[in-house]
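SEQUENCE AND FOLD
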Amino acid sequence: MADSILNKYKDKQDKKAAVDTSRKLKIGIIGTGWIAEAHMVAYSNCPDAEVVAAADLVPGKAEAFFDEHCIPSDNVRFYLSHKEMLDNEELDAVSICTYNMTHAECAIYALNKGVNVMLEKPMCVTLEEAVEICRAEKKSGKVLTIGFQPRFDENTKMLKKIVDSGELGQVYYIQTGGGRRRGIPTPFGTSFIAKETAGIGALGDIGCYSLDMVLDAIGYPKPLTVTGYKSDFFGKNPQYMEKPEYAAAFSVDDFAVGFVRLEGDIILDFKIAWAMHMDSLGDTMILGTKAGMKVKGDGQIIIYHDVAGEMVETLVPKQSNNGNDPFTLKVRYFLDAIKNGTPSPVPSSQILYNQAIIDGVARSAEIGEEIKLVIPKI
């Protein structure tokens, strides 16, 4: 028999970390779709956390989720809404794994209830929603972290180390993004491709990751203006869909581009695709006055610089995660922040800028011209 979800990745945990298990943090899961499985795996690997409640708007779905993954549910209470769960449970934290369009509603309600929040990416759909989430967080005094697990991969962290070292000099241009030749996410239905549930498509789903990787590396400067474009040529064409009938439900973007001016006189050239007639949209590049850095599709980091008057390329050795799973680490650091009163591992003050760019690309694309980003104070 295959190992249950509770036993996944057990051999990948850092045995050196001492965790205080004298009091287990009580966790609730909001939304029991496929990403909730990864959250359950992570919490099962944290001996000081216990999932005690789950909510899903589809009757029986939460119970079926626990049964399907062989997760003991004797001590778990099930609800049909996040409000019902939060009104009836004394929780320390929740993981929000719902549709993009409900991220803001669920996060704000949980924070207003005094509950710490792990919010899956993208943070939400619009800049206005992101502002309201941040204000609820500030008012509550609770921990809010956003689900960007790539930050905890040692190779991603190396990008920031290189920039912080001054090796690149003054950064002035960044190219980032990613693309799938065919990769519209429909194996679990239409929740990713319908506007009423997703709100945004590739732009938010995978675009937020590309933005976070480079913006975190350079210290998350404030975005100032955006020129955006988006299209849906593939999603609305039945011949490119896993299930042709899904084309009629497709109402988000499958391709997006943004040209962003950042504080510090930095230009960000961003592009993302779920589907296209191309193998790649190019490598991630960060250009500086002393050196340039490239991240190839396989994750290899290359620094282009001059040594003794000669043009040299340096391959940065790939870093090991020492058996630590980045997804589990993002949950581990969230729990540590709750217990120790330390800052959020992925602060909303940064992801507010990420969301502002996503929202800016979408709005600029709609009106066909550059827009100035106005980000309210929290």
User: Anything to note?
Assistant: The chain has a mean pLDDT of 94. The domain at 5-148+326-347 is CATH 3.40.50.720 (Rossmann fold).
